Amino acid sequence: MSIYDVDIQRLQGGPADLGQYRGRTVLLVNVASKCGLTPQYEGLQRLQETYADRGFTVLGVPCNQFAGQEPGTSEEIAEFCSTTYGVDFPLTEKVDVNGDDRHPLYAELVGVPDAAGYTGDIRWNFEKFLIGPDGAVVARFDPRTEPDTDELVGAIESNLP
Question: Which SUPFAM superfamilies match (predicted)?
C-alpha cells in the first residue's frame, strides 16, 4: 500500500496531499488529547525534531473512537497539541480508524502485522505505523510502544531515505 494515493484533509481544512511525503519516512500515529498515552506527543515531537532534516516526519491522525478521548474541534486539537506539547508535525482531520466508517487510509493499514503478529483493528490511541520512503508500510507498533524505544528508533533509522 502507498499512502500517497489516499485522500485525507489537514486538521485545519484543505487536502493534506500525502504525496508530499514521497521519498520520506513517515511515522503515522492515531492520536488523542485526553488519553493516558497522550504524553507520547512529547516523544513524537522529539522524533520530529531529531529526524526531520534526514527525511522523516511524524503524521498525527486524531481519532475519537476510543472512550471519546479526542472530543475537541480541529481548532481545539491544534491548540492543545501546540501549547501543551509544542507539536509542529502535521496533523490530519479527525477520522475513524475502525468500524464501518473506517477511513480508507486505515482500511489498508489494519492488515499489517506488528512484531507479535497482530493484525486487525486499531487497538487504542497511539498505535503507530512506519511508512518507508516508497510508501510501503514497514512496521506496526503497539500503542504502548513509547516513541523513544530502541525498537522504534532503530526502525526509523534503518528506513530513513
Answer: Thioredoxin-like
